[in-house]
């Protein structure tokens, strides 16, 4: 049996935003049919609509689980309402921090609701698009590998970057390179791990796929450089048929992201936007990032998860 109390916890805060006092307003409008009221707390009604809304947000809920889940949802709504009423008694709904939090949550919900309605459901990519993505990214599919990596994150100013790169080339071992960093008082942090291709940034993956074991590469990081040493790799290719569901989801995600950006850009172009005072620089175009840390995933979490789940589920 699933722990629906744990599943429902994230919904408690969201419910505060969408209307804590709805029950009181509805009660004032007239008595409801008994089937529309799930519970009352000090006269405030909690409705079946509130229960159904919460149930819709529980993922993978089947018919056998719906009854115990609905009972737990009602219990959680009662717990929440007791707390909300006491918070209102204590005038916490007038606390500036609470007001700001409620307003921020409301704005986020409205923004997501607009974009969700505007974009709708993305269309299925064509067979040609799926095949094309598979063919243009062999490092993810037909030549997919699992990489054993050693990483050295170096905090250093830009004027030191060339010297660091030169020293890495000149060092015979990583220990020699690490000793040089220490002598130069350059803070460095080492890490190692095993990562499949889809959990590496697409910006560096093609180069990494061509590197022989033991070779190193250097990429820019927000506060310095990141040295990536390929300690070893193992080929684990997947076929087009195996990858097709994952690629389909990935392309749908990319299409939706592009449509969202285009819609936002159009709305901003039509709006009158002024950045004031100390925030005037926010109006300037943000600098493009030259590299992505290897701990980040390809394009987005959704994209990488689509590939990972598709591959692991079909192999």
TrEMBL record:
On the tree of life, the source organism's domain of life is: Bacteria
UniProt xrefs under Pfam families: Rotamase_2
What keywords sit in the KW lines?
Isomerase, Rotamase
Identify the InterPro entries for this entry: PPIase_dom_sf, PPIase_EpsD, PPIase_PpiC, PrsA_foldase, Trigger_fact/SurA_dom_sf
Q: What's its EC?
A: 5.2.1.8
According to UniProt, the name of this protein is: peptidylprolyl isomerase
**Residues covered by the PpiC domain:** 125-245
- Record family assignment: Belongs to the PpiC/parvulin rotamase family.
What are this entry's molecular-function GO terms?
peptidyl-prolyl cis-trans isomerase activity
Q: Which reaction does it catalyse?
A: [protein]-peptidylproline (omega=180) = [protein]-peptidylproline (omega=0)
Organism of derivation: Thiobacillus denitrificans
């Amino acid at each position: 049996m699933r722990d629906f109390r744990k599943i429902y916890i994230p919904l408690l805060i969201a419910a505060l935003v969408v209307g804590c006092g709805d029950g009181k307003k509805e009660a004032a409008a007239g008595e409801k049919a008994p089937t529309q009221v799930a519970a009352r707390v000090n006269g405030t009604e909690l409705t079946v609509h509130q229960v159904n809304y919460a149930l819709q947000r529980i993922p993978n809920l089947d018919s056998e689980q719906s009854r115990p889940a609905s009972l737990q949802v009602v219990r959680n709504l009662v717990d929440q309402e007791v707390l909300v009423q006491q918070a209102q008694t204590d005038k916490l709904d007038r606390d500036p921090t609470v007001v700001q939090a409620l307003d921020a949550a409301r704005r986020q919900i409205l923004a997501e609701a607009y974009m969700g309605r505007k974009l709708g459901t993305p269309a299925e990519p064509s067979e040609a698009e799926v095949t094309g993505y598979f063919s243009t990214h062999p490092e993810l599919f037909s030549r997919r590998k699992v990489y054993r990596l050693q990483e050295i994150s170096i905090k250093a100013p830009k004027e030191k970057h060339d010297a660091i790169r030169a020293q890495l080339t000149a060092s015979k071992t990583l220990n020699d390179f690490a000793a040089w960093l220490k002598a130069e008082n350059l803070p460095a942090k080492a890490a190692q791990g095993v990562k499949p291709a889809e959990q590496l940034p697409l910006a560096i993956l093609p180069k990494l796929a061509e590197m022989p074991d033991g070779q190193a590469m250097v990429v820019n990081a927000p506060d310095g450089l990141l040295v990536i040493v390929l300690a070893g790799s193992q080929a684990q290719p997947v076929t087009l048929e195996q990858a097709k569901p994952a690629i389909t989801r990935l392309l749908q995600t990319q299409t939706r992201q592009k449509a969202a950006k285009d819609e936002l850009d159009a709305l901003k172009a039509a709006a009158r936007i002024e950045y004031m005072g100390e925030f005037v620089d926010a109006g300037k175009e943000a600098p493009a990032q030259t590299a992505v840390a290897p701990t980040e995933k390809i394009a987005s979490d959704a994209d990488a998860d689509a590939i990972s789940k598709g591959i692991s589920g079909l192999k």
